[in-house]
Amino acid sequence: MAELKNDRYLRALLKEPVDVTPVWMMRQAGRYLPEYKATRAQAGDFMSLCKNHELACEVTLQPLRRYDLDAAILFSDILTVPDAMGLGLYFEAGEGPRFERPTDTIDAIKKLSIPDPEDELGYVMKAVSTIRRELNGAVPLIGFSGSPWTLATYMVEGGSSKTFEKIKKMAYAEPMALHMLLDKLADSVILYLNAQVANGAQSLMIFDSWGGALSHSAYREFSLRYMQKIVDGLTRFADGRKVPVTLFTKGGGLWLEAMAETGCDALGLDWTVDIADARRRVGHRVALQGNMDPSMLYAPIPRIEEEVGHILAGYGEGTGHVFNLGHGIHQHVDPEHAGAFIKAVHAQSKQYHK
Ligand SMILES: Cc1c2[nH]c(c1CCC(=O)O)Cc1[nH]c(c(CCC(=O)O)c1C)Cc1[nH]c(c(CCC(=O)O)c1C)Cc1[nH]c(c(C)c1CCC(=O)O)C2
């Protein structure tokens, strides 16, 4: 396997010294790039793109050809796992993801089986190994999955939700049913992420996009507890190097201490958190990833550069910061603004790494 040429993303996550602050963007392969839209049109629909390892590799590499990014992220989706559990994932134009067979009863949950990552999810593993080979050591490859709670929201609601009415009803009225579902999901995610590492992923990220919808105590019971189970079950070394694990709960700023206690290596921060405050609270335990508002990329370039400066100054001196957006890049962002953002992080961060 090719030696890593640029490892500053892995180094920052493990709090080893770096020359400049590493940067990547959540959803960096996506619809804001015309070349992505062209490849997606070639594939047909989104899931066909995910299932074609050559095209999935192509869209993973597209943003790296344009920008000086410090990491690549596997092109796939968090909903591949419930799809492999038999729920029938499809995308309705303009409506987001949907499931043909939602898992909203205890009987449906009892019937769910744990997918074999090399079989039902073999197409993802093929994409991971292809991307890792094609990267040829340029930058590390990030593997990922959804958190059990976030996956369960889609599975129980049957798709995206704003109110989470069905899953919250289950949480409070039939908690044992939901725990059974979350436990099966945690077991599935452990196998899935470990298989990604076996196939070449060098770092792992768990997206808990909807943990922030929970109450203070329900977050611990239904989301954090299962991310803890995953952290405990992961392969943490590969190719003689630590495989860092990043937990990201959107809207989880109040719970950073509890998240840091899981033994993960880093926490993702959305834009509601002051990164200086986050560093004071948990910076002795974990690295921090974030946290610019993705909508800032709509601002004129000088305003983007100013915001990058604020966030870098907020984190301050030394390693342990991976610059990123606080959530995925929006589809109407001008690719030139994304480029200016990435340049600004590298140019302005030298002064903090002497
Ligand atoms: C909640 C969630 C999903 N998927 C994901 C999350 C967690 C992160 C977050 O909170 O955003 C994770 C994800 N989805 C995608 C990636 C690819 C890697 C990357 O470049 O970051 C990653 C890491 C591709 C994608 N996943 C999806 C797209 C858009 C599909 C298209 O090309 O039309 C992409 C590029 C589809 C998807 N997938 C999902 C939704 C809600 C949608 C519809 C979004 C929309 O229509 O804007 C579920």
UniProtKB/TrEMBL annotation:
Top-rank taxon, per record: Bacteria
Pathway entry: Porphyrin-containing compound metabolism; protoporphyrin-IX biosynthesis; coproporphyrinogen-III from 5-aminolevulinate: step 4/4
Molecular-function GO terms, alphabetical: uroporphyrinogen decarboxylase activity
Domain Uroporphyrinogen decarboxylase (URO-D): 22-31, 142-158
Gene Ontology BP, a term: protoporphyrinogen IX biosynthetic process from glutamate
Presence of the UniProt keyword NAD in the record: no
Broad class of enzyme this protein falls into: lyase
Enzyme Commission code(s) on record: 4.1.1.37
Primary location: cytoplasm
Keywords: Cytoplasm, Decarboxylase, Lyase, Porphyrin biosynthesis
A Gene Ontology term for the protein's cellular component: cytosol
Transition state stabilizer (site feature) positions: D77
Residues where substrate binds: R27, Q28, A29, G30, R31, D77, Y154, S209, H327
Subcellular compartments: Cytoplasm
Catalytic activity: uroporphyrinogen III + 4 H(+) = coproporphyrinogen III + 4 CO2
Family statement: Belongs to the uroporphyrinogen decarboxylase family.
Assembly, per entry: Homodimer.
Name recorded for this polypeptide: Uroporphyrinogen decarboxylase
Organism of this sequence: Shewanella septentrionalis
Encoding gene (name): hemE
